[in-house]
Design brief:
Helix content: 25-40%
CATH architecture of the largest domain: Alpha-Beta Complex
CATH superfamily of the largest domain: Nucleoside Triphosphate Pyrophosphohydrolase
Structural class: alpha+beta
Radius of gyration: 19 Å
Order of helices and strands: HHHEEHEEEEHEEEHH
Number of strands: 9
Largest sheet: 7 strands, mixed
Oligomer: single chain
CATH topology of the largest domain: Nucleoside Triphosphate Pyrophosphohydrolase
Number of domains: 2
Length: about 240
């Protein structure tokens, strides 16, 4: 992923200034260092992890903060029958453990492997845990199907026109109070991880995931574990 490549370049020769190791950025190096509030002569080890994320975003021509991690983002609140009863902000939904909706997507390639992501340290829930290929809350008024398409594009840079419904999972502690639809997508092309969303990612066989979940469930977001077991119990492979 771009973040990893830039970091490797930046630390390849530690005594050199970063501007001599990284490619020419969009706009100019001066604009980039001004956005970072650092000197033009900065070296790799002088930057924080958050600043490296900002550099990766800059090289993707993305300079505005993502709405997905704002506490003010608005979700539909639902009752025990998954019926919308109002709207609340992300912050209030998590703070008060209100029932809401989310989608998980398993991306499967032609060899039958499934892409898993490791959540960014910047995530407000389950940072650095391994999770579904893409996952996220439904925005207020958004359908599960539309949310799946949006999350695939926003998190891993995949553009699809439709996904397949694999399972419907009721809300509970095991889903962080989310009514979840698990959906499937086929993809063999490149993955473009966004550094503020995903730390890293990899393709795994279902059998490898089974063994990993069994041995170290603490490595995963609990919503993923719930989705994974539901899918496998329905014959998913």
């Amino acid at each position: 992923m771009l973040f990893d490549r830039l970091v490797r370049m930046g630390f390849s020769q530690r005594r050199k200034q970063l501007k001599n190791l990284l490619p020419e950025p969009p706009r100019s190096w001066q604009e980039l260092v001004e956005a970072l509030s650092v000197a033009a002569s900065v070296r790799a080890e002088e930057l924080s992890l958050e600043q490296w994320v900002q550099i990766a975003r800059w090289y993707e021509n993305r300079t505005e903060a993502d709405a997905g991690q704002k506490a003010s983002e608005v979700f539909d609140v639902v009752n025990e029958r998954n019926e919308v009863i109002g709207q609340e902000t992300r912050g209030e939904v998590h703070k008060r453990k209100l029932l809401h909706r989310a989608v998980h997507i398993f991306v499967i390639n032609s060899r039958g492997k499934i892409y898993l992501q490791q959540r960014s340290h910047l995530k407000d829930v389950s940072p650095l845990k391994w999770d579904s290929s893409a996952a996220g809350h439904l925005d207020a008024g958004e359908s599960y199907a539309a949310s799946a398409i949006r999350e695939l594009n926003e998190e891993i840079g995949i553009e699809v026109t439709a996904t397949e419904l694999a399972a419907e999972i009721p809300a509970g502690d095991n889903t962080d109070h989310e009514f979840v639809e698990l959906r499937l997508a086929k993809h063999d092309g490149p993955i473009r991880c966004l550094p503020e969303e995903i730390a890293t990612g990899e393709w795994f066989t279902p059998e490898d995931i089974d063994a990993w979940v069994e041995a170290r469930p603490q490595d995963f977001a609990k919503g993923f574990v719930t989705c994974w077991k539901a899918w496998r119990s329905l014959g998913g492979h």
